[in-house]
Amino acid sequence: MIPYGKQEITQQDIDAVVDVLKSDFLTQGPQVPLFEESIKKAVNAEYALAVNSATSALHIACLALGVGLGDVVWTTPITFVASANCALYCGANIDFVDINSDTYNLCTDKLEQKLIHAKANDLLLPKVVIPVHLCGQPCEMDKIHKLGKEYGFSIIEDASHAIGGKYKSNPIGNCEYSDITIFSFHPVKIVTTAEGGVATTNNPALAQKMELLRSHGITRDASLMTEQSHGGWYYEQIALGFNYRMTEMQAALGVSQMSRLHDFVATRNTLAANYDQLLKDLPLITPKQSDDSYSGRHLYVIRLKLNEIALSHKEVFEQLRLRGIGVNLHYIPVHTQPYYKELGFVEGQFIESENYYTDAISIPLFHTMTQEQQDKVVAVLTVVLNKLL
Ligand SMILES: *Cc1c(COP(=O)(O)O)cnc(C)c1O
Questions:
Q1: Residue with the nearest Cα to atom 5 of ligand 1?
Q2: pLDDT at 389 over 60
Q3: 57 φ, ψ (degrees, to nearest 5)
């Protein structure tokens, strides 16, 4: 089976992790700050906080921005559930803004309409909006940022798919148009630390809050303490935090992987450009890219033109899997998940997202993909979609 995504682990990565295992620190040593440095440098942000997952990063980012009971956070339905769950962890409510039918990202016009409607009807305005750079393609951050100023919401960019990408020639994660950006380093993502996440920001107060929250709310910084030190052992818990720390093995793997970031993203862009060409005569829509951005190309999503295909969406998916193509579907609209339906969301609420779900398929795309593998994906797709079965 050719998987839809796969990590690349080199001897250099293995050596980096083994070196840590032989060292004095398995956690809270020098590798985490080194990894954070590599992220800061790559994305041009003032602060980077490494944690054990992007889900944890989303949670502490929401808390740092003051999300709590009585607040509402808005995100897109076409994302991994974690982008929405983080608001619920904080006791806040979640709501969604439907996607743009070309980019599949949160639609900026619909965001504005929803804001106007909320304001006119005295409804709660969002405390935070979480745009997700789906497949690595950046959202229209300048417009979202402008709306944030106008309507008073903060912005967390969910860049789980987007490390190494650029928006208007600047690296995603530099927080020019947001308060915090979060990244994921799960093995299917562009860079991996096995499990892991990072939050970047340029705001020292937010960085300090997230640093406390990732490690129990405990500080050893005398300037934050309420009492005089009792002695060399002394620390204070000044907030209710968690254990969301990244290990030294994970961070060392991350440092080693980050040295290949540009190569990873360049290869993904080459493979994606190949797909654009190879698939152009098939009954499907290839991903449209905006000209002011450079996508990390985490995923390659095709949309089937079902009225030109003999098989159903599900049949195409199953035929591809049967023939060794490890396709997937990113994502089931979050508001249609049973847990979210329990909260009151209903089908029909976010039509573009629901339409997307009826014909989208993610086809294999990963750094080590060979020409033969890519040709096989295209050949199998050609047979299945033309029903030359
Ligand atoms: C993978 C992913 C997450 C969660 O990342 P973890 O590191 O697995 O917690 C959140 N949002 C999006 C869009 C993702 O793709």
A1: 54
A2: no
A3: -60, -40
Whether 158 lines ligand 1, by a CB cut-off of 6 Å, is yes
Distance 160 CA to ligand 1 centre (A): 6
Q: Is 160 in the pocket of ligand 1 (CB under 6 A)?
A: yes
261-302: per-residue pLDDT in tens? 999 999 999 999 999 999 999 999 999 999 899 999 999 999
| pLDDT more than 70, % of the chain | 99
How high is the mean pLDDT of the chain?
97
Tokens 């190879």 label which residue?
278
Angle at 129 between CA 126 and CA 135, to 5 degrees: 155
CA gyration radius for the chain? 22
Q: Is the peptide bond before 331 cis (omega within 30 degrees of 0)?
A: yes
Q: Domains of the chain by range and CATH?
A: 2-258 (3.40.640.10), 261-385 (3.90.1150.10)
Q: Are β-strands 170-171 and 166-167 bridged in parallel, bridged antiparallel, or unpaired?
A: antiparallel
Q: 201, 209, 215: which is closest to 245 by C-alpha?
A: 215
